[in-house]
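Input sequence (329 aa), recorded before submission:
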Amino acid sequence: MHMRAPLELGGSDLALAEQMSVIARLAEFDSASAWCTMVANNGIGAISEYLDDEGIAEVYAAQPKPIGAAVAAVGGPATPVAGGYKVSGLWRFCSNVHGADWVRCTALVEGDPGHPVMIVVPHEDLQIKPTWRVTGLRGTGSADFILEDTFVPARRTADMRARTQLRGDRDYTRDVGGALAVYEHAAFAIGLARRARTALAESLRNSPDRAQREVVKDEFARVCLEMDAAELLAFSAFGAVDDPEATWSSDPLQGLPAVATYVTELSQRCIALAGRRAGSRALFVPNEFDRLSRDITAALAHALVNDANYARFGEHLIAFGAAPQLASA
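Predicted structure, token format:
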């Protein structure tokens, strides 16, 4: 949960591709564990990078590795007061909120709607609502929470219009609009697809008659090849962001959200095929295919992996040419 956090604060400061490998591997075994690790990693990572020394001292005071959580969307206004802000609002879908020591979220400065500010609040300041009654990713506890006239001292805030990163070797200031944060979503989807492939292969080995059907072998081979190619695409695209020797034909971040969306959609197709070809095993509950189907559907509902990513990338390709985004180093 501290892969992104800077070395100087006890984190690992791993490259994006290394973080992806960990999240994908976790997702091969348990969806909620992987998702909560993803959110905690992102939450404490940004807190550690953007808060000033006084704020960091407070966050890290109780334990050397505090657990974080984060909400991407804006939930309410931040009213400037002496020494900080008064904040009120509703923030939705905060995964890992029940286990977090600190939560990072975004508010807009009152009177200046174009001025986002990152606010960091302790768990005890949250009014957590029992809203997470869902079909997929049930174990993530992604509940809503309310802040009601909560004072947030300036030391626990960061001006996200300025986006001044104070720690860490990797430049996360480029992550405007979630362009960079989607690497974790791609990794999560990859792990779920691996799990579906493993489960289907096991099911077919236990059902020789079904395994010998030409259409089953054909479909399984095709979806495995597609997922292998998608993994290579995702790991190379996000890995190249950290490669100082890589040269790009245009802004490297433009295509990353589309890559994450594509990988997540393809994972859903892989999981659907696994459930369809698993035979009667997929009828009885509980079963892995049903769980995977619900979890990947929930993952696709996230705002960072939506269809608009394709449209934005298409607009970029039209403007700058449809050549491969990563040129040879």
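Checked by second reader. The chain has nine helices and nine strands.
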